Amino acid sequence: MSTTLHTEIVNDLLKLAVESGASDIVIKSEKPGYLRMGGRLRSVEMDPISCEHAQAFVDEKVPRVFRQKWEDDGQVDFAYAADDIGRFRVNAFHQRGLVSIVFRHIKSRPPTFEELKIESETLIKMAQAKDGILLVCGATGSGKSSTMAAMLNWINHNMDKHIVSIEDPIEYTFSDEKSLFQQREIGLDVPSFELAIKSVLRQNPDIILIGEMRDKETFETAISAAETGHLVFSTMHAATVAQSLTRLFEFFPPEQIAQARRQIAGSLRGFICQKLIPAIEGGGRFAAHEILIADATVRNLILDGHNDKIQQLLESSSDSGSKSFNKDLYRLIKEGKISKADGLRFSPNPAALEMNLKGIFFKT
Questions:
Q1: Which residue ranges does the record assign to the Bacterial type II secretion system protein E domain (predicted)?
Q2: What is the pLDDT of residues 256-277, one digit of tens each?
Q3: Which domains does the chain have, with CATH numbers?
Q4: pTM for the full model?
């Protein structure tokens, strides 16, 4: 089989995706390619991509350090750079004995708040924290990495910081402006996530970006960094603030929960949870946020084990910048950016949002 042919087939599809503004590209053996645009998956008019071509592409492009994992596990994550097209995060896997590949386009330039069409005042305030842990949460494809990148982009243009990132793989590439970036990609710059985490505090960072808060060891490193004067950014797969907080405590065994409460209350600076809602006009999507700023009230609730009262705090009026999803969905509907139907569909409490839209608000 020609090496040029399978690479050419994939590169042609990736080029079309970039030119079309697609966020993701899906290859399923014996099917045409698919592009995700505006959150929707669309097939491409092309010949089906054979399993042989898909297999050959992965076998050739997977970095040497990951080849054994691909052979042993039948799935692998890596980064791929196509000349004059761009960089992509790649997940290759087997299904029903055939090879499938999913690409995520890695933007060469991080986005601004304006480009993401999100309100920036509270996020900028959070980005200026001197230390602690900031978590950006949401489901896969919710844009959490883009929001975090926009916050770091603002820091890069406005603050003098040394920023070290640990990513698997790199999502956005930053050029040094006022800040100095050191972006470490697992598999290319450091053999393992665990080794990168263990060494990051010796690299003299002001800010640490951890691509994903994946386990107890990662979170304990983040806490240690926060307690020694560093600001830590990371992401989590969680839909709401309440779910995010619950997930943090799931990292710890029952006998360590009391200690975990003290550590989380002391180090947490806030959660930003995000959903992408279809726009009414012109396609695209708007981000709806649920934000919790860990002020004194929040820290006391965490210390006392009253996690159940966090949602009440988000729903109540506050000048701290914290807000519930329903508050932001209400704003987006009233501003004519999203439809009422979509607002209710994405709301964690549609009955309450329906009452809000009728002008009825309940004090908590």
A1: 201-215
A2: 999 999 999 999 999 999 999 9
A3: 3-106 (3.30.450.90), 113-357 (3.40.50.300)
A4: 0.82
One-letter amino acid of 111: P
Task: State pLDDT tens for residues 221-245.
Answer: 999 999 999 999 999 999 999 999 9
